[in-house]
Specification:
14 helices; alpha/beta; 365 residues; 6-stranded parallel β-sheet
């Protein structure tokens, strides 16, 4: 019996890296491949949706983006330890292909693949290369891009495949959009896997300021950080707005499909999900994102008139309220935005990425 081809996926840090990795894992398991996920303890928290067949390796890693001086000084040693373990595992159990999705937890497996000259590629979700992918873009066989165009180092060619979305999102891709009207309207507020304080600061006040022709019909689902949750609940209660508040929603695809309007950060996975399902959106890019990559992520939907961009700098509740009202009070515009968003969706992104993996593995797999 022929040995099954083996894919090692390296990802971690946030849902933005893990959700596309999950989509690829689902596709490759369906093709009969053996799949292993290499991540760190933080990334493992987002791995609950991966197929049960996917093996897991938790490696030592770290990030220079958080912590004090001592914590940052310790990061190279954490990464070095993870690299040594990853090299040993890859020698013992050689992958057919290694795919990195960014984030510092992907470093150990990518270094191991480079040292051992294993077939390797990366997928960049954002419109600007992340730090780890900047390092490896010139050193891998393929650079798959989720947002196009993505500036790349000289001599590096990108493959514009789009951002893979989970099967649960694809299952909702044909859900019809119900335009806003004088009936319960769902507003979904999502800030990425880590939540967003600015949304907790601004959105309840913006919704509270909506005219009486809109406000009584609102049904809000708001993802808020645990430390912000009590004040967000209080703000909605004070405004007499029905709202569900939680640090994380496990059923985002269903909520997206039911939403009349999405208010969101512009993380690559969020933009991809909004596009594939096709919903009007107000996007508020994270101002401190490296290279302002969230603004780059939002560009396609905004230029295509499927979303409104509200820069975080200088944003106030009055301006946000006016943008919300302009969409929810204009059913024709909302319906047009939904259709334009759906037209930009890349539901075939996983298929395209999986095809690159198979081609990289070669004809003997």
């Amino acid at each position: 019996m022929a040995k099954r081809p083996y894919l090692l996926i390296a990802a971690g840090g946030t849902g933005g890296h893990m959700f596309p990795a999950q989509a690829l894992a689902e596709a490759m398991v369906a093709k009969g491949w053996r799949v292993r996920l290499s991540t760190d303890a933080r990334g493992a928290r987002f791995a609950g949706g991966f197929p049960v067949q996917v093996e897991r390796s938790v490696v030592s890693s770290g990030t220079f983006a958080r912590g004090g001086i001592l914590a940052r000084l310790w990061v190279p040693f954490q990464i070095a330890g993870g690299v040594i373990v990853a090299i040993g595992r890859c020698i013992w159990d050689k992958p057919s292909v290694v795919v990195g999705f960014g984030g510092y937890p992907s470093l150990p497996a990518l270094v191991a693949a480079w040292v051992l000259r294993l077939p390797c590629m990366i997928h960049e979700q954002n419109g600007v290369l992340g730090r780890v992918n900047q390092i490896f873009a010139p050193r891998v066989a393929k650079v798959a891009c989720g947002t196009w165009p993505t500036p790349l180092p000289p001599g590096v060619a990108g493959e514009p495949v789009g951002n893979p979305v989970r099967q649960a999102v694809l299952d909702r891709a044909t859900a019809p959009y119900m335009a806003p009207g004088d009936y319960p309207m769902s507003v979904l507020v999502i800030g990425g896997s880590q939540g967003a304080r600015v949304l907790s600061d601004m959105v309840p006040a913006a919704l509270a300021a909506l005219p009486a022709t809109i406000k009584p019909f609102l049904r809000v689902a708001h993802q808020a950080r645990a430390e912000d949750q009590d004040r967000v609940v209080a703000a909605y209660d004070a405004a007499d707005i029905k709202a569900e508040i939680a640090p994380f929603f496990a059923d985002i695809p269903r909520r997206l499909a039911e939403a009349q309007l999405v208010i969101s950060r512009a993380g690559a996975s969020s933009v991809a999900d909004i596009s594939v399902i096709g919903r009007p959106a107000i996007l508020i890019p994270f101002a401190a994102a490296a290279g302002d990559h969230q603004t780059a992520n939002a560009r396609g939907l905004v230029e295509g008139q499927a979303a409104v961009l509200c820069a975080e700098a200088g944003l106030d509740a009055a301006h946000l309220s006016a943008e919300i009202a302009a969409i929810l009070s204009d059913p024709e515009r909302a319906e047009r935005m939904a259709a334009l968003a759906h037209a930009q969706g890349r539901p075939d992104a996983t298929i395209r990425l999986a095809a690159l993996v198979v081609a990289l593995a070669g004809p003997n797999t």
